Amino acid sequence: MNAAAAMAEALGVPIPPAGNSVSTLASTGLLYRVLAISQIDFRNEAAFELAANLVEEAIDMQRGGSTGNQAE
Q1: How many CB atoms lie within 10 A of CB 69?
Q2: What CA–CA distance (Å, rounded) separates 54 from 36?
Q3: Does residue 72 lie in a domain region?
Q4: Is residue 19 included in any domain, yes or no?
Q5: What's the number of domains the chain is made of?
């Protein structure tokens, strides 16, 4: 998984062809996670687990679920 693929998956959009773009609506929490993914150094083995967790949280947010980070 690279940053572009993880970001697209988190946003729920396909990776656009070079020179094209896609549009989507995103909450600030979702955008925060996508921006965090963009800063991950994928040369580090632990980065893949971190990216997977951020993608999973982002998908949960899109579905209206809880990320588990909220205080009860």
Answers
A1: 7
A2: 8
A3: no
A4: no
A5: 1
